[in-house]
């Protein structure tokens, strides 16, 4: 039996997800000794291996990256040039992008067309313009026989098997009629507490402040409440299901930010004034309760009509989406094979550890295919 061929990793991003991934990578390397870490880069600093035959040690990357001798951060062209000048087979190089960097996302076709594989949770590459989506497809394997592989399970639902499930449904010939779900851990937590199935929740502004204090929201909660994160995930799933949606501006996305608060100078100012609009959200909740329903923030895709929507929905209390707990995500796939009882994927859809698990799992798939 032949020894596995070496593979060379360039890891971009060392924040919450990036750090969790590098921790998981140290465990994975024990089972896959062919892994060689040759580049780590974050927003301000970079580390490179002495040579591709002398990789970076996973035990000391954090302190080494903080050392004054660390290099400035690499730009996407510099990352590509470093890998191209390595005197190794580019088909054995893998870019791990643990950022949400738009510039790097736009550079994916350049890496793929040179045979460099990509694993990433970065939503922006797959929810930007349809032209970029098509360019990524055409420059990656199998459309380009010499192109790199690309996996992005964690771009929707963290470590949940949402993208792989949809791809399997499509690849095996099932007909996907409709997809709907709760795609934001933050908004799941908010509405599960603001409008629970059994009993009444607190005031809207209080629930938003609670979510922020528990770390469920972005530093500025408006980045969660504007719906754009959910819209990006819906675009990704729609495209995988065959809907040629242009971008997140091509369909209705309901923002939960009161118009008067859009111009707030900071997240703290926004939170200090959000209580002024509690009555508005209370009215929405009461109207749903009067009809025996609850409100949830839902993303939906009508595949057959090519229609997408993101926003508040009034749901029966026995609806699968209505009964979520905590910050869980849920996605319902309504298909020809599954009929009226959808295939459901549910679980933790946010968090550094579970997102990194999705990235690590995708890396394993690439390693298997490169051998």
What does this structure look like?
β9 (293-302) and β10 form a beta hairpin. The protein is 38% helix and 19% strand. The mean pLDDT is 94. It is globular. α1 packs across α15 and α9 packs across α10 (204-213). The protein is of the alpha/beta class and 371 residues long. A seven-stranded mixed sheet has the order 4-3-2-1-5-6-7. A five-stranded antiparallel sheet has the order 10-9-8-11-12. It starts with 6 loop residues before the first strand and ends with a helix. It has 15 helices and twelve strands.
Global shape: globular
Query: How are the strands ordered across the major sheet?
Result: 4-3-2-1-5-6-7
Count of DSSP strands: 12
Which structural category fits the helices and strands? alpha/beta
Helix-strand pattern, N to C? Answer: EHEEHEHEHHEHHEHEHHHHHHEEEEH
Helix content: 25-40%
Overall pLDDT metric: 94
**Number of helices in the DSSP assignment:** 15
Unreliable spans are none
For the largest beta-sheet, the strand count, sense and barrel status come to: 7 strands, mixed
Distance between the termini: 12 Å
Strand content: 15-25%
What Rg do the Cα atoms give?
Answer: 22 Å
Descriptive tags:
single chain; about 375 residues; alpha/beta; five-stranded antiparallel β-sheet; about 40% helix; about 20% strand; globular
């Amino acid at each position: 039996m032949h020894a596995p061929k070496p593979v060379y990793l360039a890891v971009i991003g060392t924040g919450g997800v990036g750090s969790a991934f590098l921790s998981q990578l140290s465990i994975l390397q024990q089972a896959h000794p062919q892994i060689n870490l040759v580049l780590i880069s974050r927003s301000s600093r970079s580390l490179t291996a002495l040579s591709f035959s002398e990789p970076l040690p996973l035990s000391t990357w954090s302190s080494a990256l903080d050392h004054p001798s660390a290099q400035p951060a690499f730009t996407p062209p510099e990352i590509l040039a470093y890998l191209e000048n390595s005197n190794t087979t580019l088909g054995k190089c893998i870019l791990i992008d643990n950022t949400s960097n738009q510039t790097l996302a736009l550079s994916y076709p350049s890496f793929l067309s040179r045979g460099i594989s990509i694993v990433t949770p970065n939503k922006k590459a797959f929810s930007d313009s349809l032209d970029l989506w098509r360019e990524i497809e055409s420059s990656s394997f199998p459309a380009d026989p010499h192109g790199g592989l690309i996996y992005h399970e964690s771009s929707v639902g963290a470590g949940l098997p949402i993208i792989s499930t949809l791809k399997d449904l499509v690849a095996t010939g099932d007909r996907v009629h409709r997809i709907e779900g709760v795609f934001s851990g933050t908004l799941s937590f908010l509405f599960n507490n603001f409008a629970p199935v059994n009993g009444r929740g607190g005031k809207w502004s209080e629930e938003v402040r609670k979510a922020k204090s528990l770390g469920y929201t972005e530093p500025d909660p408006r980045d969660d409440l504007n719906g754009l994160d959910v819209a990006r995930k819906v675009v990704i799933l729609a495209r995988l299901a065959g809907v040629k949606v242009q971008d997140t501006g091509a369909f209705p996305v309901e923002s939960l930010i009161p118009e008067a608060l859009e111009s707030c100078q900071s997240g703290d100012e926004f939170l200090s004034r959000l209580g002024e609009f509690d009555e508005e959200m209370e009215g929405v909740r009461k109207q749903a309760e009067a009809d025996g329903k609850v409100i949830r923030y839902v993303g939906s895709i009508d595949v057959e009509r090519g229609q997408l929507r993101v926003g508040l929905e009034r749901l029966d209390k026995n609806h699968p989406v209505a009964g979520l707990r905590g910050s869980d995500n849920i996605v319902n796939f309504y298909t020809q094979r599954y009929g009226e009882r959808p295939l459901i994927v549910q679980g933790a859809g946010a968090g550094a550890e579970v997102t990194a698990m999705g990235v690590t799992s995708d890396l394993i798939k690439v390693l298997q295919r490169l051998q």
